[in-house]
Amino acid sequence: MKGRVLIIAGSDSGGGAGVQADIKTVTMLGGYAATAITAVTVQNTLGVSAVHEIPPDIIAAQARAVLSDIGADTIKTGMLGSRAVVEAVAALLDEAGVPVVIDPVMIAKGGASLLDPVAIAAVRDLMIPRASLLTPNAPEAAALTGLACATTDDLRRAGEALLALGARAVLMKGGHIEGPRIVDILMTADGETLFEAERIETRHTHGTGCTLASACAAGLAQGLLLEGAVARAWAYVAEAIRSAPGLGAGHGPLDHGWTLRHS
Q1: Catalytic residue at 211?
Q2: What is the domain partition of the chain in residue ranges?
Q3: Does the annotation count 31 as an active-site position?
Q4: Superfamily of domain 4-256
Q5: Is 152 considered catalytic here?
């Protein structure tokens, strides 16, 4: 086991996204996952029916308990929910002083809002400048930049805007862009790398964003260079989608454990 990842995110009772997906991902990739829970959601593959937010001081206390004892090589953030939580987490990131993968979670797969409007500005102002890697999908990139994100070129322009806001790298996810192929763009000040493949036609994609960001965080925690960490994460998620177990009547979970059958 190599690579400690502290995950600051919400819980998904259905197990497909949130900290449950994060823990599975980091574990399956050989790392160690610790958590600070930001919210408890009531959800399954059909959607989110309720959210109970954890007080910011308890979120911070969870994270500090981990950092003061176990430590972390990388921090991954997911659902933050409110401006108060964003502010508390931003302060923690400064204290920790380790690389940070920020997944700007705003909307659940079923459409439920997971970030209030006031918090979006806080993510833009406080989280993006602290991101070693930012992993927005097209709707999240549009909300953060105010730019249209309907094409791959739109994603590229939004990525440039996010780099200008202070992110050291952005992985612009193209799953919401129409077309037979998925194109994700890893962008830094030094250039870009494309990750491209045929679209997998399936409804079992719940937790893909959480999984991808956590896989990237695990790679960075294990000492992989950014491009290598993203490439491994991308391949891991693609196979997890292809191997999805078909659970639930809605947006089903991935097969995070496929590595156990390919070892």
Answers
A1: no
A2: 4-256
A3: no
A4: Ribokinase (3.40.1190.20)
A5: no
